Structures are given as C-alpha cells and as structure tokens.
Amino acid sequence: MLAKFKKSGSVTDALLARAHAAGVLRSDVTSLDITSLIVQLSKRDQLELTEAERNARTRVIAIALDGLRAGQGGPLPGYPPGDDLFAER
Length: 89
Prior knowledge:
Elements: H1 2-22, H2 31-41, H3 51-66, H4 84-87
Helix pairs in contact: 2-3
C-alpha cells in the first residue's frame, strides 16, 4: 500500500506543482492536504484521533472553508501533514 501511496503522491505532486506555478492554488496547500481533504471529508467522525489526525482534520476543514484558490483566506492552521499520516494505514 505504501508503494501505491507514493506513486499517487508523485502524480498529485506534479498536478499541484502545475497549479501552484499557474497561481491558481494556495501556496500553502500540499499534496497531502489534498489527500487528507478527500479522506477526511469521506469518512465518519472518529472519537479517538491522534494528534496528527486532529491537525490534519483542522487543516482540511480550513481548506474546505477558505477554498483552495490562491489568494483566499488566511494562513492555514497547524503544520503540513507528513507522509507518516497515511503510511501507517
């Protein structure tokens, strides 16, 4: 599963790099933020989240509310998620 995650990550990274270069995507949004957005918005609430999962959820909600387009909203809360957030699944 880690190999598939890394392969899809490189495709997502390329897409985000093009969007960043075109100035149409917030500069502080990472490919893991996009993956997190999809995962977080497609699963039910869980009562016991790790600190990394809580951080990712907070960022995802901010991205969803502020929008992904460049120039929208303030800086994202927390820190960009790391590969470990999905690698452990």
